[in-house]
Design goal:
Number of helices: 12
Helix content: over 70%
Number of strands: 2
Shape: globular
Order of helices and strands: HHEEHHHHHHHHHH
Radius of gyration: 27 Å
Largest sheet: 2 strands, antiparallel
Oligomer: single chain
Length: 325
């Protein structure tokens, strides 16, 4: 027969064991919290340090050229005259072309992979192949663009020029291959997997009741996709698009190898142009002191453009998250 003292001792032992486990869990929780906080602060500090170092390196050009740097179209190292308006234009145009192509393809691919159009054993290899594209180095895509895409698309570019040359977007001389449209198409290939993967993840975490409820009310599959699933996951879709936009704006090797590096503004997307990243990559190695400062100033401009894109994206995402809530 167990005495009261034994029962008290057993209960006190269990309480002590529970207390020890609770203390250990609390220590682990505090350690994990401290680690994540340190990593977050460290990441922000590194970003601020990069921005400050770039701004310091570009400060002589900022003092020398001021805001004229943003509207000047000349890049003349011999006479120390610099401006990045053609590069800003080329960066925005190529990014816009890439998004026009990548958004419908990426979102459509995500819908295809999540809405049971084909069996799982077919969807899985397709999803793996799409995600594998992200791992291809950009320099490899640049070489592929030079030796494969340029010869393959040159007849198409010339057809557009001869048939639609009366439009400013397709006018100019006969296209030779390297142009803004080519860069936009290769960038679209690079960012489509980003949009497709993140949009697919968004659709997969949506409650299944949304789809089932819509179908139960008599909606067709496409009505459910267009009127229920896409609006419900709109904030995630916009997030993926903005992340892809940042990738397109910051891409270097593809732009440097395929854009043509023509320092001029041309309304035609079939003509060579220039981007900020392509300018930095092609001229940094042989630049003098003033030119290095101008290139750093151009880098600051690119970071400001990316920051503005992220701010707009955050505002849009919060708006649609409120609507979804």
């Amino acid at each position: 027969m167990t005495s009261g003292t034994d029962r008290d001792f057993a209960s006190s032992g269990k309480s002590l064991d529970i207390y020890k486990r609770a203390s250990t869990a609390r220590i682990l929780d505090l350690g994990f919290w401290g680690l994540t906080l340190s990593l977050a602060i460290g990441g922000g500090a590194v970003l601020i340090w990069i921005i400050l170092q770039t701004a310091i390196a570009g400060w002589p050009a900022m003092q020398l050229f001021g805001l004229r740097f943003l509207v000047n179209t000349s890049w003349d190292p011999v006479n120390n005259i610099y401006g990045v308006l053609p590069q800003i234009y080329g960066t925005l145009v190529t990014t816009f072309i890439a998004l026009i192509v990548a958004i419908p393809v990426g979102v459509g691919t995500a819908v295809f992979l999540t809405e049971d159009f084909v069996p799982k054993f077919i969807r899985t290899p397709i999803a793996f192949a799409i995600e594998l594209i992200v791992a291809i180095p950009s320099v490899v895509l640049g070489i592929w663009g030079i030796f494969v895409l340029v010869p393959a698309l040159r007849p198409f570019f010339r057809f557009l020029n001869s048939s639609l040359g009366w439009l400013p977007f397709f006018g100019g001389g006969a296209p030779r291959g390297n142009n803004l449209l080519l860069v936009g198409l290769v960038l679209a290939l690079m960012i489509t997997p980003v949009i497709a993967s993140l949009t697919r993840s968004t659709f997969e975490v949506l409650p299944s009741e949304l789809r089932q409820g819509s179908l139960a009310l008599g909606a067709t599959r496409w009505e459910t996709i267009l009127r229920v699933m896409i609006p419900a996951g709109l904030s995630g879709i916009i997030s993926s698009i903005m992340l892809a936009m940042g990738r397109a704006m910051g891409e270097t090797m593809v732009a440097a190898m395929l854009v043509g590096n023509a320092n001029r503004i041309n309304a035609s997307i079939l003509q060579p142009g220039s981007t900020i990243t392509g300018l930095i990559a092609s001229q940094f190695g042989e630049a003098g002191r003033t030119q290095v400062a101008a290139l750093m100033y151009a880098g600051v401009v690119l970071m400001i453009l990316s920051l503005l894109v992220n701010i707009v994206a955050e505002l849009i995402i919060r708006r649609y998250q409120n609507i979804e809530g």
